Amino acid sequence: MTGTSRRGRRGDEDGPARQARTARRRGGRAGGGTGRSTRPADTGVVSRARALRRRWVAVLSVLTVLGLAYVVLFTSLLGVRSVEVTGNRDVGADRVREVAEVPLQRAMLRVDTDAIAERVAEIPGVATVDVSRSWPSTIEIAVTERTPAGVYDTGSTLYLVDTGGVVYKEISRRPQGLPEFRLSEVGARNPETRAVVSVRKALPRQLRDKVTEWRADSPGSVEFTLRSGKTVRWGDASDSDRKAKVLGALMTRKGKVYDVSSPELPTVS
Questions:
Q1: What confidence tens digit (pLDDT) does each residue in 212-252 have?
Q2: DSSP conformation letters of 113-126
Q3: Over the stretch 91-146, which tens digit does the pLDDT of each residue have?
């Protein structure tokens, strides 16, 4: 009886004891063998700290960008301190700066380069303008001046005419070596002027430099006079390359008037 009672008590105790030992073993494995686990409250604190750091980083980044934008756009730290003019020959650099009206000390990014270019383009001798920023503090104005191709005499005033037929500058006396445009009107949009300009471009340079006078009563009646006194009747501006070749051969003959207006039937008289 006594032995039986002891076995019964051990049997009763084996079940709960075994379950406790099993639970402890399982708990140890779930905790990575340490027997400890992370509490939910600790995880929440870490997450909130990380979120707060991210917010501060975002705020500081925005403030930094705004600060830089203010410095660049609204202070003279990166403002205009000099204006450099290039490409000019006859037009003075001081004249370009005066017309350009570049606002010194203004933030570089707030300078209206298009407006500057428009103002400089109004100078008679300027053909094209390019305005750019040269960091940290210089505005560069690159100009291309007009190339004179002749003179236009209105009867009371002399003007220079460029290679595009633009009348661009009043002069007091005729420059040596420039031919006269003897047309009723000279201008880039004038049909007779455009015809003369086209013919001029087609001539070989050695011949073009010998021209002393251009004439045209209509776009189809272009003619010019050479230093030798010879006259060339060109006609219209069409087929100019062929006319130039025919004229080169034709001028080996003696004569005063060379007519290549019909290159198939050129004449010398």
A1: 999 999 999 999 999 999 999 999 999 999 999 999 999 99
A2: HHHHHHHHTTSTTE
A3: 999 999 999 999 999 999 999 999 999 999 999 999 999 999 999 999 999 999 99
On whether the 82-145 domain is CATH 1.20.1640.10, my answer is no
* Domain 148-268: assigned CATH number: 3.40.50.11690
For 205, the token pair is 């340079």
Residues facing residue 181 across a β-bridge: 214
Q: Give Cβ neighbours of residue 243 (< 8 Å, ≥ 6 apart).
A: 202, 234, 235, 260, 261, 263
- Taking CA atoms, 262 is separated from 154, 228, 258, in Å, by 32, 23, 11
Q: How are beta strands 126-134 and 138-145 bridged, if at all?
A: antiparallel
Q: Where are the beta strands (DSSP E) in 28-164?
A: 82-86, 126-134, 138-145, 148-153, 158-162
Contact 259, 267 (CB under 8 A): yes
45 to 39, 42, 73, 96, 244: CA distances (angstroms): 11, 5, 42, 67, 92
- φ/ψ of 184, rounded to 5, equals -65, -30
Distance CA 167, CA 187 (A): 6
Give Rg (Cα) of the chain.
45
Measured at the alpha carbon of residue 222, what is the angle toward residues 217 and 227, in degrees to the nearest 5? 115
Using alpha carbons, select from 139, 130, 140, 132 the residue that is nearest to residue 78. Answer: 139
